Structure formats: C-alpha cells, structure tokens
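Regression test attached.
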Amino acid sequence: MRLTNTLCAQHIGWHFKKHWLVQGRRVPKETGAVAELLKLGVQVKNPEDLLNTKVERKLVDIVGTREKAVSEDSSHPDWHPTVCHSYSDHSVLIGGLPQAQVLTNSIEIQSFPKQIEDAIASQQLPNTVDKSVRHAILASHVLDAEQVKLPKVRLPERPAFNLPRSYGISHERVNRLLVNKLLHESEKLAGRSVSVRRKLIDNASFKSSLNKDGDLLGFSINAEKVVFANRAIEAVKGKFEGDLPDLYPMKSTISIPKYHIYQTENLYPLRTDISCSHPHTIFTVFNKNLVKNSHGSEVTTAQLQARTLVKAFVVAAARAKQLHGDSVEGALPKPIVVQSVQTDGRTFHFGVLQLNTLDLGANSTTKNYWFHKQNYDLFSECTYEGGRTHLDNYNGDVFRIFNAFYNNS
Amino acid sequence: MSTRWYPIYQRGNPQLRVFLPNFWMKLIRPTEEQPPNVVTFSVSMEMTKYDVRSYLEKIYKLPVVDVRTRIALGETKKDQTYGYITKKDDVKLAYVTLPREESFVFPDFFSEKAEKQAQEEKSLDESKAGFRRFLDRNKKRPGTPGWFSI
Amino acid sequence: MLKFNRVSQLRTTYKRCLAGQSQLQLNPTDAEPAYPEIQDTSFKARKQKDAANWHEEIRQVPTVEEKMIKINIPRYYGFKVVDFNDSKIPYNALPLTQHYTRTVLEDLPSKSAKTQDPEQKEQPSEDALFTAARGDVIDALEFAHDYYKHLEKQPNSAEHSPVERERILTQIIVEQLNRALLQSLSEEYKHLDEVEVDYNPRHEAFWAVGGVDPPKNVQKSKKGREWQKEMANESVDRLVQYTGAPYLALRHRKQLSPWKTEAESENHELSKQLPRFKHDPRTLGYSTKHQHATNVPGYWPRGNEHNFGLLSFQSRAHLQLRPKSYGEQDMLEALHSLAIKSSYAWLLAQANYNGFNTYNELTYPMNTQTVITNGREWSFYEYQLNTLLLHGNNVDGNPRVNFCRGTKPLPLYAEISASGKCVDFNDNALRHLLNFYANVPSIQRSIGEQQPYVASNVSGYENAEQRDFISKTFKYLASNRPRHLELPEIYLWEKLYKIDNNNRAMEAKRRFFELDINPWQRTLDTHDKEYVPRALRPDVPKNKNRFKKTYYP
C-alpha cells in the first residue's frame, strides 16, 4: 500500500514504541519481601549479578605472522624522559656552517692543512690521468647500463605538470661508481706501498652521543664510503686561533629533530685491534631528494658544507669514544683527524676536521679545527644526448685534491 | 586430517560409515610432453606443495625431489536447452619431480579395449561398404531382384 | 611526319634489342648460358628463405644500436621469452643449459701441470708474488668478516633473509679481495692497471634456440589446417632472455687467448653428443615472460674501448633456496649450469656490441673467466664462445660448439675463528684465483676484423634527429619500461561469454579479439608519429612536416 497521510494516520506503530519506552522504565513495586527475608536471615542477592555475571576476558597471546609493532610512546624500551636532539642523515642544519661550527665547537680555517696544500702543489701526475678521470666520470654518469625509474621531475613554474618519468642510473649508483672509480685511479697512482695501508668499506654507520650545555645530542650517520688507514693521520702542526660565530637569537640545536626514543650507544664499524681501523677519509653523498629543509626550500651551500663538517665530527667523536671509553670528556690526549668529502656526483666539498676536544660547551677553551675550502665542480654538465656523450668544463683540480687527500697520512 | 565435519548421528542413519579423507590425489595423463621423471597429479584444492610431498613420501614412500602446483581454470559449457553457462570446478594440478634416473610412464589400461573397438568398427565399416557396393551395382537396373545378375 | 617518326623510333628500338640479344646469346665464348638458380618454392623453403633474408638484413644494418632495434621490430609489446636469470636454477637444469648454450662441459686441468713447464724460471718471483698476495688476501678476508660482524649488530640486520645476508657478506669479500689482488699483482702484471671494474653490472642477453618441441597451442593450430598437419610436430624456436647481476666484473680492451683451436671447436661428432632437451622449459620449472630483446654487458655500446670481459664474480646465494632433496650432485650441476649460462650470456652481450648476435655468426672465438662464490666456497670456470648460431636447424647442422671447463667448489678457508683469524687457508683455491687474474689478455684485432658487421656508429651520424631517435629508442627498449599504453585486457566475463561461449551473438563486435586483432603481433613501428608543434617549424606551410620522422632500420 502507498505510504499516504491516511495510512500514516491509521498507523499505531508509534504508540507501540512509546508503550515499550514506558514499560522499559517500569520500577518493580516494593513488596517488603526483602525486608522479610532479611529478618529471617536469608541472604538476598541482586538478580542482575546472577544473570549477567561479569566474565573476565583474558588476552590470548597469539603468535602472529609478524612481530607486533612497539608503540612509540613511554612504553617503548628505548624511551627516555630527557629529550635528545637526534641528528641523522636526512637532517639539515638550518643555520648552515656557523651553526655546525657552534654545534661541534670548531673554528673554521679557510684552507687545507699545510701538508695537503703542499701535496696538491707538488704532486706530479701522469698526463693520462685526466683522460682516465674523464672516462671515470662518463662511465658512472652516463655509460652505466642501469635503467631504473628516477624520481619525479617537477617544473617549478608549472607544478601541476606530470612529465613522463625518466629512466636512468640511480643517484646512489652514480655516486657509488664515481667514488669507487676515482679511488681506483688514486690507488693505481699511489701503488701498492700506499694502498696496502688503506682499507675501503661501503655504507658504514657511525653513532655517537654527546652533551652540550645541558642538551643531549645524538648523532647517527651513514658514510657511503670510508677509507681506513693503518695509522692515524698526523695532527696538523701549528696553533690556530679563531672565534665561534654568534648565532643569537638562534640556538645551536635548532632544526635538529627532538625525540624521546633513542639509544645513546657509541658505534664505530671496526674493532680497535685490527690493522686498518683508523678513520682516514669519509665520502658522503648528498641527494637533494632525500635531504631537504623542513620548509621545503633548497639546501644552501652553507647547509651542505655544514653537513660535511658534522659527518666528519661524528666519525671522529665515535672513534674518540671507542679509543678512550664512553666517559671521555674534554680535551683528547691525541687529536683525531678525519678527512671528509661530500659529493652529489658533480660538486665536491672537501674538508679536514681535527678533533681536539669533545667538550662542546660554550666556555670550552680548546676548539676543534675545521679546514675546508669552497665547493668544487668536477664538471658543469655530463649528459648523453643525441647518441653522443658530453662532458663540459671538466675541472682537473678536483682529482688532484682527491688524490692528495687519499695519499695524506 | 579432514576438514569435513562428520554429520551428526540421527536415529535411523547407518551405524557404520567410512569417510574419505579430504586429501586425495589423482594421477592424470599430462597434456603436454614432459620429462620422464615428472608425474602429474590432480589434487584436492586444499593441498599445498608440502602436503603433496609428504603424502607421496609418507604413504607411498616415493622419492620426491620437487613439487610444483598450479590451479587450472575449469571448463565452461553452454547449456543446450536454455543457453546459460555452467562452469566446472577449478582443479589444482601438482607436477611432482622424481629423481632424474626414475622414469614414469602413464599406464595404458584401455589399449585392449580400444583395439577391440577398432576391430568392431572395422567389421562394421566393411559390411557397410559391402552394402554400398551392392546398392551401386543395382542402381542402374531398378525393379530387378538383388540375386539377379549375369 | 609524326607517324613516320614513331615508326622509325620503333624500328631502331627493335634493332637495338636484336643486337643486344645477339650479344647476349650468341657469344661464342660462352659454352653454356648462365641461368638463375632454381628456387625451391615449398612452404618450408620459403619460410627458411625469409628467415635467412631477415638475418642478412640484420647483418647489413650499420650500427650496433640499430641492429638491436631491428631485432626488436617484430614485437611492440616484447617477445615471449624464457626467463633465464641468474637467481633460479631448477632441478636437473644442466642438460637444458647445455642445449640452450651449445656448450661442452669439461674439467679444468690443474694449473700446476700446465704452468710448470714453460714458466720454470719464473718460479721464485711467482712464489714471492704468491706469498705477498696470500698475506693481502688473508688480511682482506679478516677485515671483511670483521666489518660484516659490525653490520650484523645493526638493528635492521635481523630483517635480512639468509640469501640477502650471504649477498652482503660476499659483496664485501669480493670487493676487498679484488682490491687486494689488483694491488699485489699489478706491479707484475701490467694489464691489471688497465682493467675496468664494474660493480654489480647489468648483464643481459637474448638469443633464439632451436630443436625444442612446439607448444600445445602451435601444434593445435597447425593440426587444424590440413596442409600444415604434417608440420605440427616440427620444432619451433624458443627465445631466451638472460638477466643477471654479478658482484663484480673486470673488463679489458684486449681479448683473452682461446684455449681450444679452431679444429677442436668445429667438431660434428661432439656437437652430436650434446645433450638435447626437447621438452618445453616450463616442464622443468622455468617461467616465461614478455619483454624486449636486450643485450647488455654492463655498459652502453661504444662507451669505451674496454670491450672484452676478463673475469666475473657470480653469486650463488640463491642456491640456498633450493630444497635439500635436490641432492649434492644436482648442486654441483647447478653451479655448472650457472657458470655456463652467465658466461655465455655475458660473452653474447659483448659479441653483440661487436656486431654479432644470435642470428649472425661470430667470426672469432671469445673467452671469459667466471668465478662463483659465496665468500668461502669458490668455483672457477673458463668459457670459450665459438658459435652463436643456435636457432632453427643449427641444433643439428652447426658443427661448432662452445666450451666450458671448471672446477668443483673449493673452500678458500675453513672458517673465521672467534678472534677474527682465518683458519685453514686453502692455497690451491687462491692459486686458481691468481691464475685468473694473471691470465694476460693478449689478442687485439683490427677494427675491421673485430667488428666485421659494424659499418659505422651512431655518434658519427650527421643527422642529429636521427641520432637522437636511435639512442632514445635503444634506451627505451633496453630499459624495458612499460609501454605508455598497456596491453588491452580481456576481462573474465568476456572470456566466458564472448570467447569461450558465443552467448552475445547479437552484440556489435568492437573489441580487439572480436576483430581478429592480436595485440602481441603489433610491430614496434606501428605507432602514431610524434607531432611537432607549429612554433617549431616556422618556415614551412602548416600542413608540412607535421610529424617527426622515424628512423627504424
């Protein structure tokens, strides 16, 4: 039947509903039976308790297909009440090099140590080396046959455009090949006498944690390639003076993410008692798709250079703690020198860190030394276009510095 | 193991029943040529590779090297009267690899029967042909009896 | 007047023809007239001739890239290939591998017997070199294990499967050992200064194999046609695509010298004895897939002069996944077949960059050395590639065979003790490895001899548009990226109600399978040409040059 007003007028469903509501709220009449029973000493129980007894449910511990995720709150085994500024591979120091200097208590010296400068000036390389290096660049940038999907490309002026995805060599692989090939060239030039005293490893991770003016700093970094030597690099001769930059109103820990879940262990990839365990040079890769400012703007040169410094610092600090125990503080008995190179495949930033002290406080008297120069471009463009390879503005100086770094001891 | 529930006994049901296990394997003739050490089975859908392997190893003591399974789509058929489509169940096939020195030949149970049938058909064909010859011979002389000839 | 002219013209033509004929036919010096060869016009012969013509066309194509494009032209969505990769070896794979690569397997002769006679004098320096290398290698091994222990301690290392863990450890060991050996040997062996090291390069190769039984659908379709019934069981070529990534590969600009002579390689008896695997490779456990034919020895063509492989280190980590029931003997055979197929594929890819391919025969032998290792166990193989022709009737007709010789897996050390020291170092295994490094590549051919079928290279082309087109198409094929428009799909309901059962006879037939279009048969060059915007062609009329040219060979 059609749902008409006439029909609805006849419908008594509403009355039934109301009736049920009333009946549901009915209160049983007090008959006095309870009082009478109590008088006779009979225990009276609430029927609710008997009819709807509460059953305690036990949680069954099921062995699942995978381990249960540990919740990231105070129940986490690594949870600490004090907060830690955790610097990782993807962190960017927004203040750039000055912030990194304050953070690591290092003064900046805008040249390389004298022994490296001398080596760069005096080294004699055969004429064929530039040809080999050019070949190494081409082999890693365009001639390798890997074809994987590359990250999305966006046009800044047309952000909604979906360009066809390009395939090619991944950024990681380009850098891995380039560093490997350049090291291979250096080792060929140096000969067995030098190269036998070096060992190379890939993707080594370093961890260290330090206190700075009451703030806990945790560092956990990964170096794409590390050269170890059988003897530590000699400390740089001479004394260097300088002041730390003033960051006011910024604090030195700004833009380092804070976490309550962390580990404060110290990690250095090798034992102390094997022959080649001294850190010599670390090579780190800068990938602009992974390392970003939190507000999305491009990483600046100063921020990039800060990254080189911090990475070197972490390696040196981890080594110092491994050598002298976790409790070491203040000036080190023997300074630790670590060379650090950062590259994105095209631009190279070289630096040398001499770690004199692990005391990062503002009123520490000794300072660490950070020797570096501006960035160098290995080339301006390296492409494979129209069936021909192009390598424009190749800069031979980069390999000379690279080679001097490798041979430094 | 049987995943099938035993039916609840009702008065009047037979007292004793035998239930077949859910796990069964049927040896089938491979459709394509295979190496001699590969045997094809049609198995119950619940069986995994590991079930097939332990079934053969534990019950029949066969040296199983490898088992591969796949599920074949069942055939569809059009109903002759009403035109709707019916589909047979999907089948799980197991290809069991034996050690390379073993060889398995699918038994030919029905070769004799086929032979006999072929013979019967042959004699039937012969008599048919004889009759046709007879017809041909008498085609051009209608009305004459069959025994009449020169 | 006009008429007369026409007649006189005709007459002169006629006379000229007569004169010509007399010259052709009545030349007294020719005893017999030269007739063109009588051609076999049977279906089979025509097919064979077409194939031969196509192979000849490929041979005539001037550049390596264009040859590869030419081979790929028949299929827009890729060929149906047997997936022959370096990470899956089914049970009893050796006969199939030998058939598919036409390889005779031998034992590696022990080097001690071979080297003693000619190099007696060099023994002291060899020994000094050996002890130096031994020290370096032990050092490198201990260092690698020490570093690996550190990696194990990392929190995410527990997620790795045993196969991944073996890969990580072996990668470290192989890189360390390679570096140590290059250092310690390069003073004595100058060729090691010139080698190019590839880290996890991409090795791919494509080839066609004959002598395999046809698949069921081919048989069925042939049996359905009266005139093809007899050919239903004739073998059909299978296309094979190898994909692999060794830990490390060394290349050099010169070739290794062959260890089998021409006469030994061309042996009909030997080729007859080769194992044949006539069944479908899927019956063994190989799978098939659709992809473009790619030949990649780790770099792009004309990339550099280091065109010949010296040594490659292959992984055996995936062998862990094989069930125990396969047995020891099959494990050994799996190693052999891994060595055979990886060496063959790498050499084929190198040969491809020199202008040869599975349809155009090699003109000189090529050699390589292969090491299969998990860090502790090392097996050593040498391979000589003599022939590439495996397709069609070559399985019976080709007298040439390829050779592989190798060792059993030899342990390089027994274990690494808890204190990080190497226990029970095996000098024999190291000697094998040293011999591979010390094997000096000595053969250098002239460009004409090395690449007889390559007439030019793409970078030499004048036309920039053509260069661009060829290199882009080549990379597109080699990357095996999915096509812009995917293959049209047959929905399940369509299969049930339209293909298998004709239930919708009255519906308009618009889908590709109703119009008899097989999308797999689409050729590479059947696509719309790229439009050139008008702004880019200002000087021509607007309906001219609207589309970019294509330069398919």
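Expected vs. actual: identical. The two ends of chain C are 54 Å apart (CA to CA).
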